[in-house]
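Box 3.1 A note on notation
Throughout this textbook, protein chains are presented in two layers. The first layer is the amino acid sequence; the second is a token string describing backbone geometry. Keep the layers aligned when reading.
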Amino acid sequence: MDMMTLWHLTAWEFAALAFAALLVGFSKTAVSGANTVSLALFAAVLPARASTGVLLPLLIAGDVLAVLTYRRHAHWPTLWRLFPAVAAGVVVGTLFLMRADDEAVGTSIGAILLLMAGVTVWRRRAADRAARATADAEGGPGGRSGPEEVTSRAGRIKARSYGVLGGFTTMVANAGGPVMSLYLLSAGFRKLGFLGTSAFFFLIVNTSKVPFSVGLGLIDAQSLLLDAALVLFVVPGALLGKWAVDRINQRVFEQLVIAATVVGGVQLLVR
């Protein structure tokens, strides 16, 4: 029995999963948050809970490629601030998965993503106004050159809040990318720092989720067989992302991340 027969997939359904796998690679090396489209495609083709188990190994493959590409640009103080809160979120997400149905999962995460996108847009507009005011007062250019200080009280509170939400959403539906993307944008990360930090973050977090997913029955021999076929499409997606990211300026990059988050949030709400 071949893989497509085992999963009862048509040729068009497999093509949709292959395209989603390509988007996984692209999102890891270019526009983080775009993999929410992959999440929606997987959930549309496969049973919702099973789709998370199939998608996780593909995300890890994309994470490995992203780390190899951007490993020199990670900001480790930010990562150490996030990990304890993310671990708590993963535990909460596991408990939620044990009780919630697919509709509750999709609605909860979609609402969180749209809320976070709105907050991020509001914060960035406020920051831009402040930067322009500073530039006018000092007679020079405004704006941020790098990530904000994560050791401040406000920075710690924000890291914990986003960390718990990120851990919860990544455990429940592999949808932590948009949440953490919004956190890194709100913290003022530039493009390469953003990609390097998120690459290490998701490699560590997604790998730590494997035992939970196996325990819940989301990853098994059947899901890994489908992964073996789909992982071939992650690599060209990552290469395409690496080519594209050098051609996207910072402002467009940030707009694409927020737009991908909004699209993913809407898809989860209407799925």
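Residues 94 and 171 are 6 Å apart (CA to CA). Residues 8-134+147-270 form one domain.
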